[in-house]
Protein backbone atom coordinates (compact mmCIF):
# COMPACT_ATOMS: atom_id res chain seq x y z
CA UNK A 1 0.00 0.00 0.00
CA UNK A 2 1.61 3.34 -1.05
CA UNK A 3 1.89 6.33 1.26
CA UNK A 4 0.42 9.77 0.58
CA UNK A 5 -3.14 8.52 0.15
CA UNK A 6 -6.23 10.73 0.32
CA UNK A 7 -9.52 9.52 1.76
CA UNK A 8 -12.65 10.90 0.11
CA UNK A 9 -15.93 10.74 2.03
CA UNK A 10 -18.96 11.27 -0.20
CA UNK A 11 -22.02 11.65 2.02
CA UNK A 12 -25.06 11.46 -0.28
CA UNK A 13 -28.80 11.36 0.16
CA UNK A 14 -29.17 7.57 0.23
CA UNK A 15 -25.66 6.37 1.10
CA UNK A 16 -22.16 7.32 2.11
CA UNK A 17 -19.26 6.18 -0.05
CA UNK A 18 -15.58 6.32 0.80
CA UNK A 19 -12.74 6.10 -1.71
CA UNK A 20 -9.04 5.85 -0.97
CA UNK A 21 -7.10 7.57 -3.74
CA UNK A 22 -3.39 7.55 -4.53
CA UNK A 23 -1.38 10.43 -5.97
CA UNK A 24 -2.21 9.41 -9.56
CA UNK A 25 -5.94 9.59 -8.83
CA UNK A 26 -6.35 5.80 -8.83
CA UNK A 27 -8.87 4.34 -6.39
CA UNK A 28 -7.10 1.73 -4.25
CA UNK A 29 -9.89 0.92 -1.77
CA UNK A 30 -13.56 1.72 -1.19
CA UNK A 31 -16.39 1.29 1.28
CA UNK A 32 -20.03 2.26 1.53
CA UNK A 33 -22.98 2.32 3.91
CA UNK A 34 -26.68 3.08 3.38
CA UNK A 35 -28.49 5.99 4.99
CA UNK A 36 -32.19 5.53 5.85
CA UNK A 37 -34.72 8.06 4.52
CA UNK A 38 -38.14 8.50 6.11
CA UNK A 39 -41.35 10.01 4.75
CA UNK A 40 -43.48 10.65 7.86
CA UNK A 41 -46.09 12.77 6.05
CA UNK A 42 -46.82 13.86 2.48
CA UNK A 43 -44.04 16.20 1.36
CA UNK A 44 -41.90 15.44 4.41
CA UNK A 45 -38.46 13.87 3.87
CA UNK A 46 -36.38 13.17 6.99
CA UNK A 47 -33.07 11.64 7.94
CA UNK A 48 -31.31 11.19 11.26
CA UNK A 49 -28.08 13.09 11.97
CA UNK A 50 -26.65 10.26 14.07
CA UNK A 51 -27.40 7.77 11.29
CA UNK A 52 -25.65 10.02 8.77
CA UNK A 53 -22.57 10.17 11.02
CA UNK A 54 -22.71 6.41 11.61
CA UNK A 55 -22.79 5.78 7.86
CA UNK A 56 -19.64 7.87 7.45
CA UNK A 57 -17.82 5.90 10.12
CA UNK A 58 -19.04 2.54 8.76
CA UNK A 59 -18.00 3.36 5.19
CA UNK A 60 -14.63 4.67 6.38
CA UNK A 61 -13.92 1.52 8.39
CA UNK A 62 -14.67 -0.65 5.37
CA UNK A 63 -12.49 1.50 3.13
CA UNK A 64 -9.52 1.65 5.53
CA UNK A 65 -9.59 -2.01 6.56
CA UNK A 66 -6.01 -3.24 6.34
CA UNK A 67 -4.58 0.16 5.39
CA UNK A 68 -1.51 1.17 7.45
CA UNK A 69 -2.24 4.01 9.84
CA UNK A 70 0.33 6.39 8.40
CA UNK A 71 -0.58 5.84 4.74
CA UNK A 72 -3.38 8.44 4.67
CA UNK A 73 -2.36 12.09 4.55
CA UNK A 74 -5.69 13.92 4.26
CA UNK A 75 -9.46 13.64 4.14
CA UNK A 76 -11.76 15.33 1.61
CA UNK A 77 -15.48 15.61 2.28
CA UNK A 78 -18.26 15.78 -0.32
CA UNK A 79 -21.80 16.14 0.96
CA UNK A 80 -25.44 16.33 0.01
CA UNK A 81 -26.58 19.94 0.01
CA UNK A 82 -29.50 22.00 1.33
CA UNK A 83 -30.55 19.42 3.93
CA UNK A 84 -30.89 21.10 7.33
CA UNK A 85 -29.52 19.79 10.64
CA UNK A 86 -30.10 21.02 14.21
CA UNK A 87 -28.14 20.09 17.33
CA UNK A 88 -27.94 21.09 21.00
CA UNK A 89 -25.16 23.58 21.74
CA UNK A 90 -24.43 22.09 25.19
CA UNK A 91 -24.45 18.38 24.45
CA UNK A 92 -23.60 18.38 20.75
CA UNK A 93 -26.41 15.89 20.20
CA UNK A 94 -28.96 16.18 17.36
CA UNK A 95 -32.03 18.10 18.55
CA UNK A 96 -34.44 17.23 15.77
CA UNK A 97 -34.74 15.50 12.41
CA UNK A 98 -32.59 16.29 9.41
CA UNK A 99 -34.93 17.95 6.93
CA UNK A 100 -33.87 16.55 3.55
CA UNK A 101 -33.36 18.79 0.55
CA UNK A 102 -36.59 17.37 -0.91
CA UNK A 103 -38.59 18.23 2.24
CA UNK A 104 -41.48 20.64 1.61
CA UNK A 105 -42.87 21.29 5.12
CA UNK A 106 -41.27 24.72 5.66
CA UNK A 107 -43.31 27.35 3.86
CA UNK A 108 -41.82 30.38 2.12
CA UNK A 109 -45.21 31.93 1.41
CA UNK A 110 -44.74 34.83 3.83
CA UNK A 111 -41.65 35.95 1.91
CA UNK A 112 -43.10 36.09 -1.61
CA UNK A 113 -43.03 39.89 -1.65
CA UNK A 114 -39.28 39.74 -0.99
CA UNK A 115 -38.50 37.15 -3.68
CA UNK A 116 -36.65 39.59 -5.95
CA UNK A 117 -34.44 40.84 -3.11
CA UNK A 118 -33.71 37.28 -1.99
CA UNK A 119 -32.67 36.29 -5.51
CA UNK A 120 -30.56 39.41 -5.98
CA UNK A 121 -28.51 38.75 -2.84
CA UNK A 122 -28.42 34.94 -2.69
CA UNK A 123 -28.49 34.14 -6.41
CA UNK A 124 -31.31 31.67 -5.70
CA UNK A 125 -35.04 31.81 -6.37
CA UNK A 126 -37.26 31.65 -3.31
CA UNK A 127 -37.93 27.93 -2.96
CA UNK A 128 -38.41 25.38 -0.21
CA UNK A 129 -35.59 23.26 -1.63
CA UNK A 130 -32.98 25.58 -0.17
CA UNK A 131 -32.02 25.46 3.51
CA UNK A 132 -33.17 28.79 4.94
CA UNK A 133 -36.86 27.99 5.44
CA UNK A 134 -35.93 24.57 6.84
CA UNK A 135 -33.46 26.11 9.28
CA UNK A 136 -36.11 28.57 10.44
CA UNK A 137 -38.60 25.69 10.92
CA UNK A 138 -36.08 23.82 13.08
CA UNK A 139 -35.14 26.88 15.14
CA UNK A 140 -38.80 27.68 15.77
CA UNK A 141 -39.02 24.30 17.54
CA UNK A 142 -35.56 24.26 19.15
CA UNK A 143 -34.63 27.82 20.19
CA UNK A 144 -30.98 28.53 20.97
CA UNK A 145 -29.86 25.44 19.03
CA UNK A 146 -27.04 25.30 16.50
CA UNK A 147 -28.01 24.69 12.89
CA UNK A 148 -26.26 23.98 9.64
CA UNK A 149 -26.09 21.81 6.56
CA UNK A 150 -24.82 18.22 6.44
CA UNK A 151 -21.21 19.32 5.90
CA UNK A 152 -21.45 21.58 8.96
CA UNK A 153 -22.86 18.74 11.07
CA UNK A 154 -20.12 16.33 10.03
CA UNK A 155 -17.38 18.91 10.58
CA UNK A 156 -18.78 19.60 14.04
CA UNK A 157 -19.26 15.95 14.95
CA UNK A 158 -15.82 14.94 13.70
CA UNK A 159 -13.67 17.95 14.65
CA UNK A 160 -15.70 19.93 17.21
CA UNK A 161 -15.63 23.03 15.01
CA UNK A 162 -18.89 24.80 14.11
CA UNK A 163 -18.12 25.74 10.51
CA UNK A 164 -19.57 25.52 7.02
CA UNK A 165 -17.88 25.47 3.61
CA UNK A 166 -18.74 28.51 1.50
CA UNK A 167 -20.15 26.54 -1.45
CA UNK A 168 -22.53 24.63 0.82
CA UNK A 169 -23.36 27.91 2.56
CA UNK A 170 -24.38 29.41 -0.77
CA UNK A 171 -27.14 26.79 -0.96
CA UNK A 172 -28.73 27.95 2.29
CA UNK A 173 -30.19 31.11 0.69
CA UNK A 174 -28.62 33.10 3.53
CA UNK A 175 -25.28 33.91 1.87
CA UNK A 176 -24.45 36.98 -0.17
CA UNK A 177 -23.27 34.97 -3.14
CA UNK A 178 -20.93 37.65 -4.46
CA UNK A 179 -19.22 38.63 -1.21
CA UNK A 180 -19.18 35.13 0.27
CA UNK A 181 -20.47 36.31 3.65
CA UNK A 182 -23.70 35.87 5.60
CA UNK A 183 -26.20 38.50 4.50
CA UNK A 184 -27.73 40.56 7.34
CA UNK A 185 -30.74 41.29 5.10
CA UNK A 186 -31.42 37.60 4.40
CA UNK A 187 -30.88 36.59 8.03
CA UNK A 188 -33.42 39.21 9.05
CA UNK A 189 -35.96 38.15 6.41
CA UNK A 190 -35.79 34.49 7.40
CA UNK A 191 -35.58 35.25 11.12
CA UNK A 192 -32.33 33.34 11.69
CA UNK A 193 -29.74 34.70 14.16
CA UNK A 194 -26.19 34.60 12.84
CA UNK A 195 -25.12 33.18 16.21
CA UNK A 196 -26.95 29.94 15.35
CA UNK A 197 -25.02 29.51 12.09
CA UNK A 198 -21.57 28.03 11.56
CA UNK A 199 -18.53 30.13 10.73
CA UNK A 200 -17.75 30.32 7.01
CA UNK A 201 -14.64 28.56 5.72
CA UNK A 202 -13.01 28.20 2.30
CA UNK A 203 -13.31 24.92 0.43
CA UNK A 204 -9.71 23.90 1.08
CA UNK A 205 -7.22 24.41 3.88
CA UNK A 206 -6.83 23.33 7.48
CA UNK A 207 -10.47 22.60 8.28
CA UNK A 208 -9.90 20.61 11.44
CA UNK A 209 -8.40 17.40 12.77
CA UNK A 210 -10.75 14.50 13.40
CA UNK A 211 -11.10 13.67 17.09
CA UNK A 212 -11.74 10.45 18.98
CA UNK A 213 -15.40 10.40 17.88
CA UNK A 214 -14.12 9.65 14.39
CA UNK A 215 -12.92 6.18 15.35
CA UNK A 216 -10.68 4.91 12.58
CA UNK A 217 -10.48 8.49 11.24
CA UNK A 218 -9.14 9.97 14.48
CA UNK A 219 -6.08 12.15 13.98
CA UNK A 220 -6.59 12.69 10.24
CA UNK A 221 -6.79 16.28 8.93
CA UNK A 222 -9.76 17.42 6.83
CA UNK A 223 -8.29 19.56 4.07
CA UNK A 224 -11.22 19.98 1.65
CA UNK A 225 -15.01 20.19 1.78
CA UNK A 226 -17.33 20.58 -1.22
CA UNK A 227 -21.00 20.10 -1.96
CA UNK A 228 -21.44 16.92 -3.99
CA UNK A 229 -22.35 18.69 -7.25
CA UNK A 230 -19.49 21.15 -6.80
CA UNK A 231 -17.06 18.29 -6.16
CA UNK A 232 -18.10 16.58 -9.38
CA UNK A 233 -17.59 19.82 -11.29
CA UNK A 234 -14.12 20.19 -9.77
CA UNK A 235 -13.20 16.63 -10.75
CA UNK A 236 -13.86 17.29 -14.44
CA UNK A 237 -10.93 19.72 -14.40
CA UNK A 238 -10.18 21.58 -17.61
CA UNK A 239 -13.07 19.85 -19.39
CA UNK A 240 -15.49 22.28 -17.71
CA UNK A 241 -14.23 25.11 -19.92
CA UNK A 242 -16.93 25.47 -22.57
CA UNK A 243 -18.89 22.56 -21.14
CA UNK A 244 -21.76 21.94 -18.75
CA UNK A 245 -21.57 19.32 -16.01
CA UNK A 246 -24.55 17.05 -15.32
CA UNK A 247 -24.55 14.94 -12.16
CA UNK A 248 -27.28 12.27 -12.29
CA UNK A 249 -28.44 11.26 -8.84
CA UNK A 250 -31.66 11.17 -6.84
CA UNK A 251 -32.18 14.57 -8.43
CA UNK A 252 -29.78 16.12 -10.90
CA UNK A 253 -27.47 19.13 -10.95
CA UNK A 254 -26.64 20.89 -14.21
CA UNK A 255 -23.77 23.30 -13.62
CA UNK A 256 -21.24 25.41 -15.46
CA UNK A 257 -18.64 27.97 -14.35
CA UNK A 258 -19.72 31.57 -15.07
CA UNK A 259 -19.07 35.16 -14.07
CA UNK A 260 -22.74 36.17 -14.35
CA UNK A 261 -25.94 34.15 -14.30
CA UNK A 262 -27.39 33.77 -17.82
CA UNK A 263 -31.09 33.91 -16.81
CA UNK A 264 -33.44 33.76 -13.84
CA UNK A 265 -34.37 30.22 -14.83
CA UNK A 266 -31.16 28.99 -13.17
CA UNK A 267 -29.29 29.78 -9.97
CA UNK A 268 -26.08 31.63 -9.25
CA UNK A 269 -24.07 29.69 -6.70
CA UNK A 270 -20.56 29.45 -5.28
CA UNK A 271 -18.73 26.60 -6.98
CA UNK A 272 -15.90 26.77 -4.45
CA UNK A 273 -13.82 29.24 -2.49
CA UNK A 274 -10.10 28.61 -2.39
CA UNK A 275 -9.97 31.29 -0.99
CA UNK A 276 -11.41 33.51 -3.75
CA UNK A 277 -15.01 32.90 -4.80
CA UNK A 278 -15.59 31.03 -8.08
CA UNK A 279 -19.18 31.31 -9.27
CA UNK A 280 -21.28 28.81 -11.19
CA UNK A 281 -24.69 28.82 -12.83
CA UNK A 282 -26.75 25.81 -11.83
CA UNK A 283 -30.12 24.31 -12.54
CA UNK A 284 -31.47 21.77 -10.05
CA UNK A 285 -33.88 19.01 -11.00
CA UNK A 286 -35.78 17.46 -8.11
CA UNK A 287 -36.55 14.02 -9.48
CA UNK A 288 -34.42 12.00 -11.91
CA UNK A 289 -33.08 8.84 -10.25
CA UNK A 290 -35.93 9.20 -7.75
CA UNK A 291 -38.36 8.83 -10.66
CA UNK A 292 -36.93 5.42 -11.53
CA UNK A 293 -37.02 4.33 -7.90
CA UNK A 294 -40.65 5.45 -7.59
CA UNK A 295 -41.67 3.63 -10.75
CA UNK A 296 -39.83 0.47 -9.69
CA UNK A 297 -41.71 0.45 -6.39
CA UNK A 298 -44.99 1.23 -8.15
CA UNK A 299 -44.50 -1.67 -10.57
CA UNK A 300 -43.12 -4.00 -7.90
CA UNK A 301 -39.83 -4.55 -9.72
CA UNK A 302 -36.15 -3.85 -9.17
CA UNK A 303 -34.89 -0.45 -10.49
CA UNK A 304 -32.61 -2.33 -12.89
CA UNK A 305 -35.72 -3.90 -14.41
CA UNK A 306 -37.10 -0.42 -15.18
CA UNK A 307 -33.98 0.27 -17.25
CA UNK A 308 -34.32 -3.10 -19.00
CA UNK A 309 -37.96 -2.42 -19.86
CA UNK A 310 -37.03 1.02 -21.20
CA UNK A 311 -34.39 -0.51 -23.48
CA UNK A 312 -37.00 -2.81 -25.00
CA UNK A 313 -39.62 -0.21 -25.94
CA UNK A 314 -40.55 3.14 -27.36
CA UNK A 315 -42.53 5.49 -25.15
CA UNK A 316 -45.20 5.58 -27.90
CA UNK A 317 -46.39 9.05 -26.96
CA UNK A 318 -46.41 8.42 -23.20
CA UNK A 319 -44.87 11.15 -21.04
CA UNK A 320 -44.09 11.08 -17.33
CA UNK A 321 -43.55 14.52 -15.79
CA UNK A 322 -42.15 13.73 -12.31
CA UNK A 323 -43.35 16.85 -10.50
CA UNK A 324 -43.76 14.91 -7.26
CA UNK A 325 -42.96 18.03 -5.23
CA UNK A 326 -43.37 20.63 -7.92
CA UNK A 327 -40.82 21.46 -10.60
CA UNK A 328 -37.48 23.16 -9.97
CA UNK A 329 -35.25 24.58 -12.73
CA UNK A 330 -36.03 26.01 -15.17
CA UNK A 331 -39.71 26.26 -14.19
CA UNK A 332 -39.62 26.90 -10.42
CA UNK A 333 -43.25 25.94 -10.08
CA UNK A 334 -44.13 24.61 -6.62
CA UNK A 335 -47.72 23.98 -7.66
CA UNK A 336 -46.89 21.65 -10.57
CA UNK A 337 -48.14 18.10 -10.15
CA UNK A 338 -46.92 14.76 -11.43
CA UNK A 339 -48.50 13.80 -14.74
CA UNK A 340 -48.56 10.56 -16.73
CA UNK A 341 -50.07 11.36 -20.12
CA UNK A 342 -50.57 9.77 -23.52
CA UNK A 343 -51.94 6.50 -22.15
CA UNK A 344 -53.92 4.14 -24.37
CA UNK A 345 -55.37 0.69 -23.84
CA UNK A 346 -52.19 -0.60 -25.44
CA UNK A 347 -49.86 1.10 -22.94
CA UNK A 348 -47.76 -1.37 -20.97
CA UNK A 349 -45.12 -0.99 -18.24
CA UNK A 350 -42.34 -0.87 -20.85
CA UNK A 351 -43.73 2.32 -22.38
CA UNK A 352 -44.01 3.96 -18.97
CA UNK A 353 -40.46 2.85 -18.10
CA UNK A 354 -39.19 4.39 -21.32
CA UNK A 355 -41.07 7.60 -20.52
CA UNK A 356 -39.43 7.67 -17.07
CA UNK A 357 -35.94 7.39 -18.58
CA UNK A 358 -36.78 10.01 -21.19
CA UNK A 359 -38.06 12.37 -18.48
CA UNK A 360 -34.54 12.49 -17.04
CA UNK A 361 -33.00 13.54 -20.35
CA UNK A 362 -35.79 16.02 -21.12
CA UNK A 363 -35.42 17.77 -17.78
CA UNK A 364 -31.65 18.04 -18.22
CA UNK A 365 -32.13 19.39 -21.75
CA UNK A 366 -34.54 22.03 -20.36
CA UNK A 367 -31.87 23.30 -17.98
CA UNK A 368 -29.14 23.17 -20.63
CA UNK A 369 -31.36 25.34 -22.86
CA UNK A 370 -31.71 27.83 -19.99
CA UNK A 371 -27.95 27.91 -19.35
CA UNK A 372 -27.20 28.84 -22.95
CA UNK A 373 -24.91 27.35 -25.61
CA UNK A 374 -22.72 24.47 -24.46
CA UNK A 375 -20.07 22.65 -26.43
CA UNK A 376 -20.57 19.39 -24.53
CA UNK A 377 -22.24 17.82 -21.54
CA UNK A 378 -19.95 16.23 -18.96
CA UNK A 379 -21.94 13.41 -17.37
CA UNK A 380 -21.31 11.72 -14.04
CA UNK A 381 -23.31 9.87 -11.40
CA UNK A 382 -24.81 6.43 -11.09
CA UNK A 383 -27.38 6.71 -13.89
CA UNK A 384 -24.66 7.37 -16.47
CA UNK A 385 -24.04 3.63 -16.63
CA UNK A 386 -27.23 3.45 -18.71
CA UNK A 387 -26.07 3.75 -22.35
CA UNK A 388 -29.65 4.27 -23.51
CA UNK A 389 -30.07 7.30 -21.27
CA UNK A 390 -26.76 8.78 -22.41
CA UNK A 391 -27.71 8.44 -26.09
CA UNK A 392 -31.18 9.89 -25.48
CA UNK A 393 -29.50 12.77 -23.63
CA UNK A 394 -27.20 13.55 -26.55
CA UNK A 395 -30.13 13.42 -28.98
CA UNK A 396 -32.42 15.66 -26.94
CA UNK A 397 -29.79 18.20 -25.85
CA UNK A 398 -28.31 18.30 -29.34
CA UNK A 399 -24.70 18.30 -28.10
CA UNK A 400 -22.14 15.55 -27.45
CA UNK A 401 -22.25 13.85 -24.06
CA UNK A 402 -18.93 12.92 -22.47
CA UNK A 403 -19.54 10.27 -19.82
CA UNK A 404 -16.90 9.94 -17.13
CA UNK A 405 -15.79 6.33 -16.93
CA UNK A 406 -16.01 6.46 -13.17
CA UNK A 407 -19.37 7.07 -11.53
CA UNK A 408 -17.82 8.50 -8.36
CA UNK A 409 -16.76 11.97 -9.42
CA UNK A 410 -18.20 13.67 -6.35
CA UNK A 411 -15.88 11.62 -4.15
CA UNK A 412 -12.96 12.03 -6.54
CA UNK A 413 -13.41 15.79 -6.71
CA UNK A 414 -13.18 16.02 -2.92
CA UNK A 415 -10.07 13.81 -2.98
CA UNK A 416 -8.44 15.86 -5.74
CA UNK A 417 -8.97 19.14 -3.89
CA UNK A 418 -7.92 17.67 -0.53
CA UNK A 419 -4.71 16.25 -1.95
CA UNK A 420 -3.87 18.93 -4.51
CA UNK A 421 -4.29 16.35 -7.30
CA UNK A 422 -5.07 17.07 -10.95
CA UNK A 423 -5.30 13.70 -12.74
CA UNK A 424 -7.13 13.50 -16.09
CA UNK A 425 -10.57 11.91 -16.32
CA UNK A 426 -11.33 9.36 -19.07
CA UNK A 427 -14.62 9.58 -20.99
CA UNK A 428 -16.93 7.68 -23.30
CA UNK A 429 -18.56 9.86 -25.97
CA UNK A 430 -22.16 9.88 -27.23
CA UNK A 431 -23.03 12.06 -30.21
CA UNK A 432 -26.46 13.34 -31.33
CA UNK A 433 -27.93 11.13 -34.04
CA UNK A 434 -29.29 12.82 -37.17
CA UNK A 435 -32.96 12.11 -37.70
CA UNK A 436 -33.60 11.16 -34.08
CA UNK A 437 -36.74 13.31 -34.01
CA UNK A 438 -35.44 15.46 -31.17
CA UNK A 439 -37.36 18.61 -32.13
CA UNK A 440 -40.70 16.80 -32.22
CA UNK A 441 -39.92 14.94 -28.99
CA UNK A 442 -39.02 18.17 -27.21
CA UNK A 443 -42.24 19.86 -28.34
CA UNK A 444 -44.32 16.91 -27.11
CA UNK A 445 -42.49 16.96 -23.78
CA UNK A 446 -43.23 20.65 -23.28
CA UNK A 447 -46.91 19.96 -23.96
CA UNK A 448 -46.82 17.39 -21.15
CA UNK A 449 -45.04 19.85 -18.84
CA UNK A 450 -47.75 22.43 -19.56
CA UNK A 451 -50.33 19.87 -18.40
CA UNK A 452 -48.40 19.41 -15.15
CA UNK A 453 -48.33 23.13 -14.39
CA UNK A 454 -51.16 25.29 -13.11
CA UNK A 455 -52.50 28.04 -15.41
CA UNK A 456 -51.54 30.72 -12.89
CA UNK A 457 -47.95 29.49 -12.50
CA UNK A 458 -45.22 31.91 -13.64
CA UNK A 459 -43.37 31.36 -16.86
CA UNK A 460 -39.79 30.02 -16.73
CA UNK A 461 -37.44 32.56 -15.24
CA UNK A 462 -40.14 34.72 -13.66
TrEMBL record:
Sequence ranges assigned to domain Carbohydrate kinase FGGY C-terminal in this UniProt record:
245-419
Keyword Disulfide bond on entry? no
User: Can you name one GO molecular function term for this protein?
Assistant: ATP binding
Domain Carbohydrate kinase FGGY N-terminal: start-end pairs: 6-233
Pfam (any one)? FGGY_N
Q: Which domain of life is it from?
A: Bacteria
Keywords, ordered alphabetically: ATP-binding, Kinase, Nucleotide-binding, Transferase
GO cellular component assignments:
cytosol
Q: GO annotations under biological process?
A: glycerol catabolic process
Task: Identify the PANTHER family for this entry.
Answer: GLYCEROL KINASE, SUGAR KINASE
The record's similarity note reads: Belongs to the FGGY kinase family.
Record-given protein name: ATP:glycerol 3-phosphotransferase
Species whose genome carries this gene: Asanoa hainanensis
Traced from the root, the source organism's taxonomic lineage reads: Bacteria, Bacillati, Actinomycetota, Actinomycetes, Micromonosporales
